Amino acid sequence: MDSAIDRKFRELTEGRSREDAFVSVFAYIRDIPYYADPRHFSLQKGPEGILSSGRGACFPKHYLLGKMITGLGFEVDYRVYSFFWKDQGFPVPENLRTLAEGLPATYHMACKVCLGDEGSLVDATWDKPLENAGFPVNDPRRCRNGMALGVSFTMEAFTARRAEEADGYVSSRLASYSAAQKIRLGRFTRGFNEWIKEARHKYKEA
Q1: What is the CATH number of the domain that holds 174?
Q2: Which residues lie across from 159 on neighbouring strands?
């Protein structure tokens, strides 16, 4: 069956060289507005979920990116990093900084792509309008020089060649939070989603 992912892949890549198709795919996925929706964190629901909703966070963005650039013939690894929200330098308001202080380590995903002899980190997390707010927004044309990771991380926690393995690891880590941690993470996520929507307009106008 012809899926939404298949149709979008053809739209982004037909008639382009492999390198130009990579740029097209990356730029499209990068500019899906960042929005953390736990319903779309899984490999099963995430890629098509962000295509239908028009928004998404690092997990579904990189599952979708990995699938599409694998379709272009590139080798892809999925990289999972642990990080603390309190360590990020984003200009969030005081209430979110306070919430972040009490959050446990959480997880970020990016991909490593073999573009020739060496692998290059690719990270499509933050959409272009967030660049003026200080987010590390990446240019796909600079991929061979290495991209910036979307977060300041504490450690590279897991690497997998298969998306299913990365999904299993992420799912197990997210399921390990206590009830209190899940409540606090949920409050932070909802607040961050609202703030980042406002930040796109605020910093665009600045």
Answers
A1: 3.10.620
A2: 79
